[in-house]
Amino acid sequence: MIIAIDGPAAAGKGTLARRLADRFRLAFLDTGRLYRAVGVKLARSGLDVSDVETAVALASEVTAADLDDQELKSEAAANAASRVAAMPEVRAALVDFQRAFASNPPGGAMGAVLDGRDIGTVICPDADVKLFVTARIEVRARRRVKELRERGLEAIYDRVLHEMKERDARDSERHVSPLVPAEDSFVIDTSDLDVTAALVAAVKYVSSRKLSG
Ligand code: CDP
Per the CATH hierarchy, to which homologous superfamily does domain 2-198 belong? Predict the structure, then answer.
């Protein structure tokens, strides 16, 4: 079984994806980490984040080990990710890694949950279940501030909100694989849902799809 979860930043995709993977014993891939890894490597090499050629070379060399780098969690990494993610060549270079994970999940799992921006639309268009997880931008910015502060980082609400608006715009307006719900996705708006309520809604939907499939 493949579950595709897409949606904007801090909508609750990651938490939901992890819990669904536990619940249904599936492997989990946070595809944002692939783009973050490329963005961070590019920044570390001292090159400009608009250097397409190097970004593509780095993308084609990404390994599972690169995805554990703690630096990937920073907002700087998120912003660098959304810049390299707008390059069609970088996206193309990361397709095989994602599809291989979905079709041949590690640890002998019977399927996989992938979360990102274009999983249901481009990477796994035949996924058994497609969820689009979203929330109002103010709610998402508040969540991200809380998350950053819990990690001991400084976070100013207005700045986080501003950067999130910019990143939403970059992700939604890019020509290749823009952030849009797949036509056949089930939308979960988590603005007024806590983690458990969102999980309950998703499990109910996944179970109904499993029964009908
Ligand atoms: O955790 P958060 O939702 O803030 O970010 P993320 O999922 O790690 O993604 C970081 C950035 O990578 C996004 O803003 C997108 O530009 C890009 N991305 C993408 O284009 N496609 C994906 N499948 C995953 C991430």
Answer: P-loop containing nucleotide triphosphate hydrolases (3.40.50.300)
Nearest CA to ligand 1 atom 17: 82
For the stretch 102-131, pLDDT in tens is 999 998 899 999 999 999 999 999 999 999
DSSP-derived letter for residue 66 is: G
CA of 168 to the centre of ligand 1 (A): 10
What is the value of pTM for the model shown? 0.93
Q: Whose CA is nearest to atom 15 of ligand 1?
A: 82
Which residues have a Cβ under 8 Å from the Cβ of 197 and sit 6 or more positions away?
none
Q: Which of 73, 79, 82, 160 to mutate to test the pocket of ligand 1 (most atoms within 8 A of CB)?
A: 82
Measure the CA angle with vertex 38, ends 32 and 43; round to 5°: 120
Domain boundary assignment for the chain: 2-198
